[in-house]
Amino acid sequence: MPEVYTVKVEEGQPATADRPAKGPVYRSIYAKDGLPELPEGRNSPWDFFSATVKRIPKSRLLGRREVVDTKVGPYVWLSYQEAYDSAVQVGSAIRRRSVNPGDRCGIYGSNCPEWVIAMEACSSQAITYVPLYDTLGPNAVEFILNHAEVSIAFVQTSKIPAILSCLSKCSYLKTIVTFSNFPTAQKEQAEALGVSCFSWTEFLELGSSDSELPAKQKTDICTIMYTSGTTGEPKGVVLTNGAVMTEVLSIDQFVDLTDKVFSEEDVYFSFLPLAHIYDLTMEIYCMYRGSAIGFWRGDVRFLVEDIQELKPTIFCGVPRVYDRIYSG
């Protein structure tokens, strides 16, 4: 990192008889006055979300484009209160499937409102969620489901075949919930292996809107995010509530110093995979600040069209994405 972006916060120390020499400690210039501290009484990202719901319950949160007879229309939105109520109900349903605090829940599919609601449902019940890459093949899916001991999974309908192909080898997985409807033939195939299957609507009906939420701790495991496994099998990165919350507050500190913090007026374009920590923390930060999140359709051919319809004020990408947009 160029020196202009760093600041020395601790001098080096010479070697002694008891310890080796230590060089000086540098920190990003944006954190020269210290690292963010977690506020008292906030023990989980769920606290960020629920506080915003209390503050602006009717504001837009999750939006996707309406499709009627294959024709794509404008964005349709769920408010903060509506998303919160769904998360509480889904969390209650998860508990009724004998999934308890500390257990693991998989989420497999493209970014969509149900993905975020499933994530918040897990957070509400202190259950660890395990994202699976949207592009993962059956071998990696099988490995992660077993390695993380996933007992319930929320799955995009198009990803059900990948789950079914390895289901007989996944002894921990007992419940599958789709983001939409569960095709009858696939449901029968899963149930023949002893796995209970639910559509999104059916699963919501299992839950209660007034269930008591368990206490959470900063040291609880919030999520286990698997890397792509460049060499060998995917590697699971364990992130606590405290780690995720600190990252969110670090984003807030960074944008406050370099631009401006997000607000209720902002709209975020959800495009990067939620299975990556970059987009995940950005969307949690949006909920912390009360911003709206609009999802792309999952097809890169219509990426610019979705952007033109949503008119986001915030777009997070990676160099390859920006290069493709520039080239086009």
Automatic annotation (TrEMBL):
Write down the InterPro entries for this protein, in alphabetical order. AMP-binding_CS, AMP-dep_synth/lig_dom, ANL_N_sf
Q: Which GO terms describe its biological process?
A: cutin biosynthetic process; wax biosynthetic process
* Cofactor(s) of this protein: Mg(2+)
Where does the AMP-dependent synthetase/ligase domain start and stop, copy by copy? 65-325
Give the metabolic or biological pathway: Lipid metabolism; fatty acid metabolism
Instruction: Name one cellular component (GO) term.
Output: endoplasmic reticulum
SUPFAM superfamilies attached to this UniProt entry: Acetyl-CoA synthetase-like
Report what the protein is called: AMP-dependent synthetase/ligase domain-containing protein
Q: Name one GO molecular function term.
A: long-chain fatty acid-CoA ligase activity
Organism of derivation:
Punica granatum (Pomegranate)
